[in-house]
Amino acid sequence: MDLDSLLQPFQHFGVHLGLSRIVKLLANLGNPHDQVPIIHVAGTNGKGSVCAYLSSVLTEAGYRTGRYTSPHLVDWTERICLNEQPIPSEALCQLILQVQAAIDPDEESPTQFEVITAAAWLYFAQQQVDIAVVEVGLGGRLDATNVCSQPLVTIITSISREHWQQLGPTVADIAREKAGILKPGCPAVVGPLPPDAQKVVLSALNTSASLGDTPPTQEPILELQSPIFTPQPAHQIATGWAEYERIQNLKFKNHNSKTLKYPLALQGQIQLTNSVLALAALEILQEKGWQISEAAIINGMAKTKWPGRMQWVTWKNHKLLIDGAHNPAAAKVLRDYVNTLNPRPKPQSHEGKETTQHSVNWVMGMLSTKEHQDIFQALLRPEDKLYLVPVPDSNSADIAELAKLAGDICPELRFCSTYPDLSLALDAAFTPTDNLVVLCGSLYLIGHFLGMGNE
Questions:
Q1: Is there a contact between 292 and 257 (Cβ–Cβ < 8 Å)?
Q2: CB atoms within 10 A of CB 342
Q3: Cβ-count burial of 191 within 10 angstroms (0-12 exposed, 13-18 middle, 19+ buried)?
Q4: What span, in angstroms and rounded, lies between the C-alpha atoms of 218 and 233?
Q5: pLDDT in tens, the chain (455 residues)
Q6: Residue 56 — φ and ψ, nearest 5°?
Q7: What is the rounded distance in angstroms from the CA atom of residue 21 to the CA atom of residue 17?
Q8: In which order are the strands placed within the sheet that holds 436-440?
């Protein structure tokens, strides 16, 4: 039996936040999560790349490292990794069968995400990992990963308005859910947050400290007796290299300098922020006695891979940028990156000034639940071209409606059309063009592309 067949019976339960089902299921399995030291990572954007950095460095440092992330791009096995290697399909099938056998037929059935999460905890316990890097699936407070009472470190990467249908309509509501991963006595690393989210997180921590001070701060959490670290973004010092200002007030210092120069393997300005969240967490582990050398950090950062996010691939010998940007904040990051890519001069503007912004051929599909208007506003510019496709096997937005919306938002588009499938849209986008071609809008669409085996 294959993985899809094993997991399909749980699919119709959908998103159903709450901890009661996963707690009972894990208890029936012997509470494997209690055997796994973890770093717990939440956030709207950036949590996947932070997990990738941490997993790569800890593996490089010689630790037996688990990593649990979601969703997958091509195959379920991507979600559960040991030392950067996906779990074998046969092993995951056996784990799913173990989890199924532990489900009490008289209790409410777990969701598909809860089943795969329980399988991850079971795998990490059976493999006796030294540490696991665990990404929140949705929100935080009621997410199935939020069952460990004492993580080594918790991280909140960023907060913006996404999944509001499940988490609440405002950024403050969403922040309240993500802050639910914070635990008494557990150090917290927090990225830059909008004011409404910052207020909620600090309220949860019961401290009047301000996030984002310079230099990086360590503020006591009065009630929880935990430190909060808010590192500033790194400075880019050369192509592919950055410099991080270390946390200055940890008790035990083994560093020769106040800064660390390290390679950045992942693309985009946002990685100057995401990478330091991982580095701050690693420093906290060092203070706790974990042996993570500077060489392991540098080599691990250099080897980090996170497919489907600002990744360069080929389509029929053409260079193609793919990115799973599926919310407005991620779309802005993608557009900012595109604008750095040696833009070709454009005709003079009405003011007589030459512009240097890329014209881009966007190949896009989006789910119906996403903020289509805000995403288009972040991405589209005059003279761009837009090739819209449905997202296969998903709750895809209507591409005709997307085309109308895009035309309303950016009437100066040079071209906008719809295509029944991705191959046709990509062929059209490259026929012929000297524009940059970008495939984006949905991680599911990116996964479909990667599953087509084009490289």
A1: no
A2: 7
A3: buried
A4: 16
A5: 688 888 887 875 556 778 999 999 999 999 999 999 999 999 999 999 999 999 999 999 999 999 999 999 999 999 999 999 999 999 999 999 999 999 999 988 899 999 999 999 999 999 999 999 999 998 888 999 999 989 999 999 998 876 555 665 688 888 888 999 999 889 999 999 988 888 888 877 664 344 443 334 444 444 455 688 999 999 999 989 999 998 865 655 556 678 999 999 999 999 999 999 999 999 999 999 999 999 999 999 999 999 999 999 999 999 999 999 889 989 999 999 999 885 544 444 444 444 445 689 999 999 998 999 999 999 999 999 999 999 998 899 999 999 999 999 999 999 999 999 999 999 999 988 788 999 999 999 999 999 987 64
A6: -65, -45
A7: 10
A8: 311-315, 318-322, 436-440, 360-364, 385-388, 415-418
In whole angstroms, give the CA distance from residue 265 to residue 278.
14
Distance CA 420, CA 372 (A): 19
User: What tokens does 332 get?
Assistant: 């802005």
For residue 85, which of 60, 58, 67 has the smallest C-alpha distance?
Answer: 67
In sign, the C-alpha dihedral spanning 261, 265, 271, 277 is: negative
**Which amino acid is present at 66?**
G
- Which stretches does DSSP call E strand in 365-453? 385-388, 415-418, 436-440
